[in-house]
Amino acid sequence: MLFKEIIKKKRDGFKLTEEEIRETIKKYVDEEIPDYQMAALLMAIYFQGMTHRETLHLTDAMLKSGETVNISIDGTIVDKHSTGGIGDKVSFIIAPVLAELGLPAVLLSGRALGFTGGTADKMESTGMKVTLNEKEIEDVVKRFGFSISCQTEKIAPADRKIYALRDATSTVESIPLIVSSILSKKLCVNTQGIVFDVKVGSGAFMKTMEESEKLAEGLVNVSKLYGKKAGAAITDMNQPLGRTAGNAIEIIESLNALSGDISNDLLEVVTTLTGILFKIIEKGSFKEGKEKAESIILSGKALNRFCEWIEYLGGTTKLQLGKRRILVKSDKEGYITEINGETLGFLIIEMGGGRKRSGEKIDHSVGLRFFKKIGNYVKRGEVIGEIIYNQGDETVFVNRFLSAFKIEKSKPESVKLIKKLIY
Ligand code: URA
């Protein structure tokens, strides 16, 4: 079939076959289909959508454009994926905890995307090696019971090419395109169970429950069609998760969290995701998984494993933060009703802790500390946070930080952190 017939078929709302999708991806990667035609197809998908089965074929074709990762180890290999947010350091807590529970965890993580932080960048703040090949991942999992490493260039190259085109054609915000993009970089590992943490709110890509539910259902259903056990939690991102946001500063918070000094919200997300994994791979009930994870975290049992993992890969746990500090004082009195994560994410980028352009070098030592959460009452002049930086305009940073906080007279309804479980 001529490629323009495939564009027309999708434009008119028909389903594409496995063969048509496979041919499209292969020819696009081989540069037999030009960008302008692929862009037209992406826009047709944006408006007409795709069924979960079409999304499965798209994921599979993108996944097969690159390498797969096959880890040989006893036990049920599991994975956790977050759709990204501000202060999200869940991977650093859950991976060693799962290892402690006898579940080998293999996570392939990305770099910062848009205003959200990236697990691989946070790891790099320790100086550790973040890009591992299949053999190295297997060695690390065998030693520590878990591995977190960066997605390599060889994983799903079709996704990189398509993502750049989506970015240039305003077709990023399409559920089947997001699902296939994420899963092409996840299902390439021979994991058996995978749990998705789909974030919703001002500090996430998905701003509404409706969008995040569609994304969570897409991720879970397509993973199941692929033969994996899968589940998801939709979790709140209307304020940063935990006490800090940045790179080195989030590793420091993770070290504290694994020693038992953990914020309630971070503990709740980690234990909920562990509960879901227990249930989906039939290791136990949701409650059992949740309780076991909590007991490991609070006892500090997984801390050594985490430190030794960083050191084995050449990193340090003695991290340096930026030289300059400003305590931010509230300019109003009242209840905190909103802490906008997107504003804070862009502030971190402005301070040098994130990238304005891909490939840019970042300053791992800058970051933010949060002393208050939504619902707290603050007085004018009370300290609500801290900015840690090396260079730039202090006044601009403070004003940005304050602009993320909405402070009002009336007490807001309490925030529901875990909004929905899907398994
Ligand atoms: N993350 C991805 O990897 N791909 C998307 O399309 C969106 C978020």
Describe the model.
- With 423 residues, the chain is α/β, with parallel strands linked by helices.
- It folds into three domains: 3-49, Up-down Bundle (Transferase, Pyrimidine Nucleoside Phosphorylase, Chain A, domain 3); 78-150 and 188-312, Pyrimidine Nucleoside Phosphorylase, Chain A, domain 2 (3-Layer(aba) Sandwich), CATH 3.40.1030.10; 324-408, Aldehyde Oxidoreductase, domain 3.
- It is built from 16 helices and 13 strands.
- It has helices spanning 3-11, 18-29, 35-48, 52-63, 90-100, 119-124, 134-144, 157-169, 175-184, 209-225, 248-258, 264-280, 286-299, 303-312, 341-350, 394-403, and strands at residues 78-82, 105-109, 146-150, 193-200, 229-236, 244-246, 324-329, 334-339, 367-370, 377-378, 383-389, 405-408, 418-422.
- The strands form four sheets. It has a four-stranded mixed sheet, with helices on both faces.
- α4 runs parallel beside α9 (175-184) and α12 (264-280) packs across α13.
- The mean pLDDT is 96.
- Bound molecules: uracil (URA).
- Residues 113, 172, 178, 181-182 line the site of uracil (URA).
